[in-house]
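ingest -> validate -> predict -> emit
validate: passed (alphabet ok, no gaps, 384 aa)
predict: started
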Amino acid sequence: MRILRVIASVDIRKGGPINGLISTTACLLEKGHQVEILTLDDKNDNHLKSFPFKLHCFNGVKFGYRYSIDAKKWLKKNIKNYDIVVIHGIWQFHSYATSKACVENNVPYVIFTHGMLDPWFNQNYFFKKIKKKVYWRLFESDVIRKAKNVLFTSDMEMVLSSKSFKPYSANGKVVSYGSKKPDSNKIDATNFFFSKFPELKNSDFLLFMSRIHPKKGLDLVIGSLPSLLNKYPDKKIVIAGPDYGNETEKLTRLSKQLGVDSQILWTGMLDGELKWGALYSCAALILISHQENFGIVVSEALSTETPVIISNKVNIFDQVEDYNAGLVCGDNIEETTNVLNRWFNLLPKERAILSSNAMRLYQDKFSIEAASASLEKVLERAVN
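emit:
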């Protein structure tokens, strides 16, 4: 198949969608498919220099919508050269423009919403909700309705997505999703990580690794620490990830007010060998998100036999519970405190069982081989 994948940005600092795109594209290419990527990044952006696949870059206007007349013209002229198009994400110019070009040229397309229809956003961003309601009726509802399939990464995401905007009509389908196996040797990656952060060696630390964003629940993790400080003074939380709108400053101020800043290490974004070293070295990954349609970092943690501590707003929490691959709690301060207390009281043999189950869950559900095979099957059916 000749496949075009369209996404607003291929910058890995933007979160999970681009990581999934990169991993599954590699597998599709290995299977003999032709895959190209269209993005609204500026061709001179630094993050494009090492991008591994063929790119069509159009400098979308940076503020919000990322409109690009050049992308529109290119799609109109070239979309018919592809058998199938995969759109990643909504609410920006690329989804509407690509859908319109596909419909006009009778090219089938599927779309990943990547959690962007979750009701949480409407509940927490009132003015954006009003704008989205207007945009939904004018454009985005048609983008969803005309897609061969709207792809979701969990049953829960598919159910929640139908509740945010009306009218809603979608040929929804749940596909496997996941991450690639670590490309680093465990011992080498661990040693490299501790060479950069020697204060963590022999430390029983929990790792947060994601965008530092209000929806990620870091205020709950930090807010739970004062009640645990006396019982577990040697425990640390490592917070790794790119900042979102001065959120780090707010959370640093909160940790100082609560007197727990000595228990927290801020590393900034970790990538490559450092990322895998952090995942191998931590006791568990922690992600008490208020909303998470999948959580690619959860899959990455499981692939390193690392148990996870997540909220029941991470839409794959039920699979973590079914496999006993970690601990799950509600996204509030009381349950976060309780789940951390439970974790710190686990016996070594109990943690070992969770670790073993983490790898089993990854291999059964979240391997990149399973994800690419699932996507390939959907695309072939859409084409035929």
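The two ends are 11 Å apart (CA to CA).
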